[in-house]
Structure formats: structure tokens, C-alpha cells
Specification:
The structure is a single chain. The protein has about 425 residues and is an alpha/beta fold. It has 3 domains: about 15-150, Oxidized Rhodanese, domain 1; about 155-260, Rhodanese-like domain (Oxidized Rhodanese, domain 1); about 280-410, Oxidized Rhodanese, domain 1. The chain is built from 19 helices and 21 strands. The chain has helices at about 5-15, 35-45, 55-60, 85-90, 105-115, 130-135, 145, 160-165, 180-185, 205-215, 230-240, 255-260, 265-270, 285-290, 305, 330-335, 355-360, 365-375, 390-400, and strands at about 30, 50, 70, 75, 100, 125, 150, 155, 170-175, 195, 200, 220-225, 245-250, 270-275, 280, 295-300, 320, 325, 345-350, 380-385, 410. The strands form 6 sheets. Strands 1-6-5-2-4 form a 5-stranded parallel sheet. Strand 5 (about 100), helix 5 and strand 6 form a beta-alpha-beta unit. The radius of gyration is 22 Å and the shape is globular.
Length: about 425
């Protein structure tokens, strides 16, 4: 998660024990990545693609615009909540190879386990689901060009393709976040994560009125982005309705884009301005930091019950990152660091996305504000694991290049 925050919301929706199904991977059914899926599809006559999302998600007509993310050609749609109702129909495929997918691989795992437990013997679940299909470059999913289809009028662009787009200064980039977020002055610290250099700020609240001033770009390639995705999709739809010919959306939002690249990357240094005074860190960078910097401090800012896997909300019981210390307050962390060099690497995390945590008014420490305060006090190596612990866990099971996230996770026996 990739984190993503949208994935976290889906986790909450699909029961407290959703993540526990990952422990059944490659036992009851086989969980596979995209390249394996392409090979399986090519070599398996009669393979059944089973899309277990809602009919609206399948048809790109969901009431939630951020759920309109395309599908795989030839897939049949049996939503997870109607699998038992349509069980007799599915029995026709009992002896055929079935590849199950959804949006993030929560529902596909549940259905795959159900089918395997019901005697289906050739069941596969697609890791990461349509979210990763849209995020990944074509090289990761070589049959994407022939298999992917969508009815949305704009292109969904993953981080790698977006970086190339942004690097071409003949293209237009439109940022539809509020002016406060664009300027890095939002009251929620986690929303102040920088902006694309040269991006035009057209806030969603005034977007309709601003379309006339964008008319001069009508025939130019345009990339629209926001923090997550929904507002950018809405704006892109309006541009297409107004006759703009070449419109794309930065899929899964600006935070996902940033976290796809290391803090020291050329993309971050040359194409992003207004970054916070600490490092926004994704899963890949966190793995390397924990494994390669033994002197680093790993600060778990979750409530004590979550750190000890004793939360009543069991989906929040995720174990923790190895060598992590649980700090109940920012003051405890500051006190712990006061005798350490200001250059000490410090990785700070909560349960979920720093921005989503604040947006949902989750009763938890504002980890972004903690990072900012430490940076302003002179600590030069502060890393915020922006999408939180959950995204590390999700990525370990769903992102092929981040499978080794398991190496930094501990105390999760029986959970996933």
C-alpha cells in the first residue's frame, strides 16, 4: 500500500479479522502477484476471472468516485455479499482455475478462502487488487494493456508515469487541494506535505468557476491531483465535460506519489517544493532504515493497548516494528531523545495515515506535529512513516517489491 488510507478504510469495513486471512495465503488458496497472474492467464485455457467488488465498482458507476478504478476484461462479477446467494452458479467453475480479485485484496482473500474451503481446488487471489493494477507501471503487470479496461473519461496515472509526466514542462499540473494545503499552512500538520513545482492551484471549492481560466490549456495534457484521489477525479470529470481533451488523475493521491520515491530521490528534490522539515517516509524507505541503521530510534506513538495487541478494535492489533519503543506522549519521546545526537535517525509512526488519522478525529497523537516539532528543535534525521503501521503490514502481503517488509515486523503471531 500500497496507503494507503483508502485501503485502511476498506479494512475497517470488512470486519475486524480481515487481515488475519493473509495467514492462509498459499495454503487454502494461492496468492499471486501481477507477473504470475499474466503467466497464469496466458497458460490456462478456460481460466475464470472473478471480480468480487460491488456492481458499481465493477462498472465504474459506484456512488464513491474514488472506487471507479477499472476492471479486468472478461471478468464475471459476483459481489462478496452475494457469493453465497450465487454459490450454485459458481459451482459450474468448481474444477476450473479461478483468479479472484477486488480493489485491495481483502475481499478477494475472503472469497478465495470460502471457495477453497468449499472444495474448489484451483483458486488464486490477486495481490493488491485493482489498486495496485492502477499504481504499478506496465512492466510490473505486462498483460495490463490487453486486460485492463475502464469507463472513466480520464486516465488514472500511477506514480512512475506521473513522475515522467511532471518532468515534461510542456504538460500542465493542477492541484485541487485547498490553498492552505497548497501553501503548506493547513491547520492539520499532516496535510502540509509540499506540492508539485509549477502546479496551478485551483481549489475544489472554486473549481467550477475557475474552468474558464483553464481554457487556454484545453488541448494540453493535464494531470490533476489532490491528497487522496476523489477530489481530483471529480475535477477531472468536470474538465472532460468542458471539452478538455487529455486529462489524467494522479491515482491514489499526492501522498502515495511522494511515498513511492525515496526522500533523497531526484523526483523529490527536483519536482517537489514546500516539503515539511522532516522526511516523509514510505514502506520501502522504512524497511531499509530499520534494517540498515541499527542506531536508529523507532518510536511507536500508538496507544499502549494497540502496541500490546490488546485493543478492543482488533483490526488495530498489528504487532509492531522491530525494536520499536512505545511512547504514550510526545514529551516521553522528547525526553528519550534529549541525550542522543541530533543526527540520530528517528522513525515515528502511528496506526494509520497521519492525515487520515486527523481527518477522522481519531483519538491519537498527531504524529506529523511531533515530527515537525522535533525537526524545528534541530533534529535533522526525523522520518515520519506517513501511512502508518497498517500500510507496512498490507504491503508485506500485497506489494511484490516490498515483501521484505515482513523482516521489520514482529509480535504479530497469529494475527496475519
Amino acid at each position: 500500500m500500497t496507503r494507503s488510507s483508502f485501503a485502511f478504510l476498506l479494512l475497517v469495513c470488512f470486519t475486524a479479522n480481515a487481515q488475519q486471512l493473509w495467514r492462509y495465503d498459499n495454503t487454502n488458496y494461492k496468492a499471486i502477484y501481477f507477473k504470475e497472474a499474466c503467466d497464469l492467464i496466458a497458460k490456462t485455457p478456460g481460466l475464470v476471472l472473478l471480480d468480487v467488488r460491488s456492481p458499481g465498482e465493477y462498472a465504474d458507476t459506484s456512488q464513491f468516485i474514488a472506487s471507479r478504478i477499472g476492471r479486468l476484461k472478461g471478468a464475471i462479477n459476483v459481489s462478496i455479499d452475494s457469493v453465497q446467494q450465487h454459490y450454485n452458479d459458481l459451482l459450474a467453475y468448481k474444477n476450473r482455475t479461478i483468479l479472484v480479485y477486488c480493489s485491495h485484496s481483502f475481499r478477494s482473500r475472503r472469497v478465495s478462502k470460502f471457495l477453497a474451503d468449499s472444495g474448489f481446488t484451483k483458486v488464486y487471489s490477486l495481490n493488491g487488487g485493482m489498486t495496485e493494477v492502477d499504481r504499478e507501471p506496465d512492466a510490473s503487470f505486462p498483460c495490463k494493456a490487453s486486460l485492463y479496461t475502464t469507463s472513466v473519461p480520464y486516465k488514472l496515472m500511477g506514480p512512475e508515469d506521473a513522475a515522467a509526466f511532471i518532468g515534461d514542462k510542456n504538460n500542465i499540473v493542477v492541484d485541487v487541494r485547498s490553498q492552505a494545503q497548497y501553501d503548506g499552512k493547513d491547520s492539520i500538520a499532516a496535510n502540509n506535505i509540499g506540492r508539485v513545482k509549477g502546479a496551478i492551484n485551483v481549489p475544489k471549492t472554486t473549481f467550477d468557476q475557475s474552468i474558464p481560466r483553464l481554457q487556454k490549456y484545453k488541448d494540453k495534457p493535464i494531470l490533476v491531483y489532490d491528497l487522496y484521489t476523489a477530489d481530483a477525479m471529480t475535477a477531472a470529470s468536470k474538465l472532460k465535460e468542458a471539452g478538455f481533451s487529455n486529462v489524467a488523475v494522479l491515482f491514489d493521491g499526492f501522498d502515495t506519489f511522494l511515498l513511492n520515491f525515496r526522500s533523497s530521490s531526484k523526483v523529490r528534490s527536483e519536482e517537489i517544493v514546500g516539503a515539511p522539515p522532516y522526511y516523509l517516509t514510505g514502506v520501502r524507505e522504512a524497511i531499509d532504515l530499520v534494517n540498515n541503521s541499527p542506531a536508529s530510534v523507532v518510536a511507536d506513538m500508538r496507544p499502549k493497548d494497540q502496541f500490546g495487541n490488546k485493543s478492543d478494535q482488533t483490526y488495530l492489533n498489528l504487532g509492531h516494528i522491530k525494536n520499536a519503543i512505545n511512547f504514550a506522549t510526545p514529551e516521553q519521546l522528547e525526553d528519550y531523545l534529549k541525550d542522543k545526537p541530533r543526527t540520530t535517525p528517528v522513525l515515528i509512526y502511528g496506526a494509520q495515515s497521519a492525515a487520515m488519522q486527523q481527518m477522522n478525529s481519531t483519538p491519537a497523537i498527531d504524529v506529523a506535529a511531533v515530527c515537525k516539532k522535533l525537526a524545528l528543535e534541530g533534529y535533522t534525521n526525523i522520518h515520519l512513516l506517513y501511512d502508518g503501521l497498517f500500510n507496512v503490514v498490507w504491503a508485506s502481503a500485497n506489494v511484490e517489491s516490498q515483501q521484505d517488509a515482513k523482516t521489520i515486523l514482529t509480535d504479530h503471531e497469529g494475527l496475519y
